[in-house]
Amino acid sequence: MSGHGVGYPVAQLAHVEILTPKPEETLWFFTEMLGMQAVETRGRSTYLRAYEDFYHHTLKVTEHHHAGMGHVAWRTASAAALDEAVRRLEGTEFGLGWSDGDHGHGAAYRVRTPDGHIMELLWDVEYYQAAEGEGSLLRSRPTRRPLRGIPVRRIDHINVLCSDVAAHRAFFMDYLGFRHRESKVGEGGTEVGAWLSVSALVHELAVMRDATGSRGRLHHIAFWYGYPQHIFALADTCADYGIRIETGPGKHGATQGYFIYVFEPGGNRVELFGDSGYLIFDPDWKTVVWDVANESDLEKSSIWFGGRLPESFYTYGTPDVGASAS
Amino acid sequence: MSGHGVGYPVAQLAHVEILTPKPEETLWFFTEMLGMQAVETRGRSTYLRAYEDFYHHTLKVTEHHHAGMGHVAWRTASAAALDEAVRRLEGTEFGLGWSDGDHGHGAAYRVRTPDGHIMELLWDVEYYQAAEGEGSLLRSRPTRRPLRGIPVRRIDHINVLCSDVAAHRAFFMDYLGFRHRESKVGEGGTEVGAWLSVSALVHELAVMRDATGSRGRLHHIAFWYGYPQHIFALADTCADYGIRIETGPGKHGATQGYFIYVFEPGGNRVELFGDSGYLIFDPDWKTVVWDVANESDLEKSSIWFGGRLPESFYTYGTPDVGASAS
Amino acid sequence: MSGHGVGYPVAQLAHVEILTPKPEETLWFFTEMLGMQAVETRGRSTYLRAYEDFYHHTLKVTEHHHAGMGHVAWRTASAAALDEAVRRLEGTEFGLGWSDGDHGHGAAYRVRTPDGHIMELLWDVEYYQAAEGEGSLLRSRPTRRPLRGIPVRRIDHINVLCSDVAAHRAFFMDYLGFRHRESKVGEGGTEVGAWLSVSALVHELAVMRDATGSRGRLHHIAFWYGYPQHIFALADTCADYGIRIETGPGKHGATQGYFIYVFEPGGNRVELFGDSGYLIFDPDWKTVVWDVANESDLEKSSIWFGGRLPESFYTYGTPDVGASAS
Amino acid sequence: MSGHGVGYPVAQLAHVEILTPKPEETLWFFTEMLGMQAVETRGRSTYLRAYEDFYHHTLKVTEHHHAGMGHVAWRTASAAALDEAVRRLEGTEFGLGWSDGDHGHGAAYRVRTPDGHIMELLWDVEYYQAAEGEGSLLRSRPTRRPLRGIPVRRIDHINVLCSDVAAHRAFFMDYLGFRHRESKVGEGGTEVGAWLSVSALVHELAVMRDATGSRGRLHHIAFWYGYPQHIFALADTCADYGIRIETGPGKHGATQGYFIYVFEPGGNRVELFGDSGYLIFDPDWKTVVWDVANESDLEKSSIWFGGRLPESFYTYGTPDVGASAS
Known about the structure:
4 copies of one chain form a homotetramer.
Chain A: E1 10-20, H1 23-33, E2 37-42, E3 45-49, E4 59-63, E5 68-76, H2 79-89, E6 95-99, E7 108-112, E8 118-122, E9 154-162, H3 165-176, E10 179-185, E11 191-197, E12 205-209, E13 218-224, H4 228-241, E14 245-251, E15 258-263, E16 269-273, E17 288-291, H5 295-302, H6 312-315
Parallel strand pairs in A: 1-4, 5-8, 9-12, 10-17, 13-16
Antiparallel strand pairs in A: 1-5, 2-3, 3-4, 6-7, 7-8, 9-13, 10-11, 11-12, 14-15, 15-16
């Protein structure tokens, strides 16, 4: 499955840290609009989780002078898988060394992607413990469904912009065991987007070409509803509270996901994922390839139905480099 | 259309007053679960509205030593229609005389049904005025969609239990101009339920036989979502917060409504209406008749799909006379 | 209610005739995609109905050398209301005289709007009689839900383009008793759109300014689902069968309707209406006014959420005058 | 991960064969109601697939003198994984030896569960090749969305009844690498139900105690919609076409699945799965345990919301042993 014989070292997306110049407004958005729980605040960071997230947090919001992504954390398949992955990364240009961990998890090995996005690999995690009266009789639900906003159920995936899609895709496949689910290929066979997963999901990770030529930016973080109706309800609510919707509701061709994209007040793009798109169980999956030099594939891969993607979708990321979306 | 040549004096359901022995919990339910707004409190009563209700209030919650219905208010088609209706009611056993009005509306003429349910007819109403920052850019929406609970959009209908369905139906048709949309007829042609409306809705008012032989009780008050998905979301939420669901989600045959029935903490049954069922535009409508002495009609009229209606649905009302639902 | 004291002569939209240069493909669309029933064919016309339409037909598809609208038929509130309306129309520039009727209904009085759109007023209608095995146990449903396509439930409304919105609105209000529900007003107070109804619906009829300056064209005919999810399902299906979606799914500000607009193969625009928007019960309704010279109202009235309306939405109608939509 | 060091030999549910005494009616149900495609018929068997199933078939319907399950086929993670699994099964009471394969797949190794349910392990599969004009522009969708019925998207899971849940669970975990996702435990710690998966799904396989003491029966086969609204649409359609709904729509506590259960005309129970319940990504998952000797867990695990499960749900399986469901 991998030239390095590594199996699937990564098991899941554990959490994402985003940066915001407007922490109060950003937290309002995630707690009051998306119904997330602020578990604790330490210094300039607040740790949040959705009501069906099992761990201490899946989102860390950190005050910063600009918007962007702090880091992405991946949980490995086992403690041994973590050790094995680290052995292969140490001494490469990607391995940055161990950190002592953070609230909610133990030691993490830090890596950088070719473009410099910071990622962590970790095994030890703290499970969220519901306080008295906070738990659910639904035993697979760590805490009751919130009564605020249109509450998201769990973190879903991360999408990062990069200068070289093929190089990033290879990094994630070779070192972290991701599988290549869907691909967009442009003129001359250049990869312009890759959807990668370590589970039945079509993606926990997407890498897309940064049309501005910038390096290391965040395209979006996504949370999951499971039901398309909720993205209608969220759209209706965003329209009433001045949260800017970039595009959607609609359905992508690539991933088949029912989406809506909005900007949290700090400027980061957030996708709400209305269903599971489709799921992949075939152990011998052939990457779905969209030839976006072809008009039909270009259109259908982006938008199976719904409004066209605006230009900002291809140029805006965080940190903002000034091209658009203002 | 009516033997009394009265036209359609009633135009719409204006508001309902319910009684509760647990006002705090009842208000929590309507504001935190159903997202209604508590507009003001006077003495033992709190006035509430849904976010797409246009008037000062559509629900009045009054503390009382038992649950039940205080009164139902109907707005007439015009000031003249109110006068005309009063002229016909005065001096009958049904006319109770004028009241000075209440917060949110002007003078109201009070009537009693054959069983003694208290109803009001009124014309002058106060429209809700959104406070600074509370309004919506959606000009047909008086206030923004709330961020609490699964917010209902507007009041929909009222269902009262009575000792003699035919007599009550005739009262509402003869004096108030209701039209007979659907009918359930049992053994020997006895009417056991009637669905009546003054608009394209199948009903703003249902009258059903009280199987306990009691008089003047409330079966349920209903609020409208417009989207069936919300009754799923509410069901999920009720299960998490200990609000008892009597039955649903499901679809009635009579009215075609997507329903869920829950009990607010004070004991009154509340229906959440997921769609509009079907709408009636035919000016020469032939009442839909279900012969509930017939097995198929009995089943299909009650439940087109979904779990069977429990026994309590036929015996429990407020005030509770002890038969069931405990 | 009207300067002419006419009351509400019109009770409902009865049916619409559309013209198509591709009758076979048009019929395929309405029967296989929208699940309508072809009741009968006579000459160049086929009569269709949705499964919850009560009359013989609600759509007549007639072969013609170009697309467009044949006529619109309105059922009056009673036989007397029809006579009264005719008395007022006869001798005006709008009254065209009686026709003998058509399959499915009796004598109809024909009128023309200021722009020349042909409309009929009628009272006698033929109810659709389900054939053996075709009926439903759901007594308010004339025939069983079809197993083809994403079946629409009933006709909903008609939208016509015109050279002078105010003049057309006045015609419908003065002669036919329509009420003015929502209004779009542009520079200098010019009306650019009007939503009119004779029931709790926000509109059975919309009139919009024809940006091409043409007269008498059709903007769209709309059928009703009642559930937004079906417009997602239809969008998914249209994408798979090459039916062009102009815009949607989304939600209009004006009417609050969940919409999708597609072009049937003959070229006429068809809207599928996912819910009921909101319903109007207030007998003293103040017309909702959108000032589309104002940026916010312009945007929000058109699209509360969803992709922007394309230019074709403002210029394309049938017959096509060549401006767009190709 | 397993005492046998076997890793995860099974990767997915490949197909299920059901038996029916009414093949014509059964096929009508799957093709006209559920929109499946009859790919080919050989002798007494017809092979079917849903429109997002990738292989030649996922359902084989075989005429038989009674209803029931023919066999269940699982695809392994690789050819090597198949060999390894066979090595461990050969010579045990469970290994039945190789079959030559069937239409749509190559050689399969047959096994029997402790109760005698027949299962197959296979690697070589034939992918469905869309005929001219049958394919979709959506590249992850093998064929266009059908225009018949309420079309299911793919096979989801299988639920079998057995005499000893713990023994069957252990068999699937020890020999086939299933993980134990949820468990129902009754009086004295006896396992009465187990939900097992080889992916992020909560289950591709459930085993439940047969309350009649029978061995080797089928409880149900499940197909996936992904959207709860479709189970409402299917319920509405089943009510109109005389397809018996056993229970639903509702939401299970165990698995969190939105369900409806119906009986296909041959007598087998079929579940339609409206969403994905929740998905499991935690590599160190602790089995969710419901103590069904406890009243709350008994109720909530079965029905989080919706009508109570009827007695037949616990006693009826196929072949029918006469206890119920008539």
